[in-house]
UniProtKB/TrEMBL annotation:
InterPro entries hit by this protein: NYN (IPR021139)
Source taxon at top rank: Bacteria
Protein name: NYN domain-containing protein
Species whose genome carries this gene: Pseudomonas alkylphenolica
Disordered: region residues: 62-89
Lineage: Bacteria, Pseudomonadati, Pseudomonadota, Gammaproteobacteria, Pseudomonadales
CDD domains in the record: PIN_LabA-like_N_1
Transmembrane segments: none
Domain NYN, chain residue ranges per copy: 4-78
GO MF term set: RNA nuclease activity
Amino acid sequence: MLFNHSIQPIQQFAYTKGKNATDRLLIIDTMDLLSTGRFDAFCLVSSDSDFTRLTSRLREERQTVYGSAKKTPKSFVDRTMEGDPSQTA
């Protein structure tokens, strides 16, 4: 199924406690994609409020941001174009 949808799994090890290396990797990858200039919209499917600043940063670059997840923080929903307010925590 991953191959059919061009999804590349990446193992991320936790080298230190209390750090979320996976979130940081996703943020770095998103900023790399933003810097290519090839995209005008991003979709973040996460209920993690750690991505709120990423969402703001994408909007600063005039990107359309779609966001969705169960119990999405209001701050995250407020910074997306298509956040679902009915799912706000």
